[in-house]
């Protein structure tokens, strides 16, 4: 039941129905934490979905708090933690906290290097790091963007039409070439 509500909330977020998503996900998170405990993977998944909905709805202080809590409670090398750190990085950058967003992206990259995660998760982490470097005009964007592109190629191949993560990685490489 919690898993279905979380999936529905994520779907609503994907359709930009943020008020509905938030109205569903907040009580789902509370229910999951009450019934299963705050470190249970289903509770963490509900928290991640809520944090992403809050971020997309521009409720950035709440998103940052929720995503930080998920990243702290999740197992150190779990994919849930990686996703929470990536989403936290994005929310922090949107909130104008670029240095903190870069730190979160670097933490995700370090955790991904230590973990056995699939190619798509590695591609997401690499892209998040490159985006954080681009947001702050930091050195190393081109190298990070190339790593993101390589990770996306490994994850998705050279499909036609190209999947969005691969296109985003190509844009990051172009930005890196322009900057350096």
List keywords for this structure.
180 residues, single chain, globular, mainly alpha, 9 helices
Characterization of this structure:
The protein is mostly helical. It has 9 helices and no strands. Helix 4 packs antiparallel against helix 5, helix 6 (98-114) runs antiparallel to helix 7 (119-135) and helix 7 runs antiparallel to helix 8 (141-156). It starts with a helix and ends with a helix. 44% of the residues are buried. The mean pLDDT is 93.
List the helices and strands and how they pair.
Layout: H1 2-14, H2 18-36, H3 41-56, H4 60-73, H5 79-94, H6 98-114, H7 119-135, H8 141-156, H9 164-179
Helix pairs in contact: 1-2, 1-3, 2-3, 3-4, 3-5, 4-5, 5-6, 5-7, 6-7, 7-8, 7-9, 8-9
Q: Write down the overall geometry.
A: globular
The CA-CA distance between the termini, in Å, is 50 Å
Indicate the low-confidence ranges by residue numbers: none
Helix content: over 70%
Mean model confidence by pLDDT? 93
The major pleated sheet works out as: none
Classification by helices and strands: mainly alpha
Give the count of helical stretches. Answer: 9
Radius of gyration: 16 Å
Question: Can I get a quick summary?
Answer:
This protein has 180 residues and is mainly α.
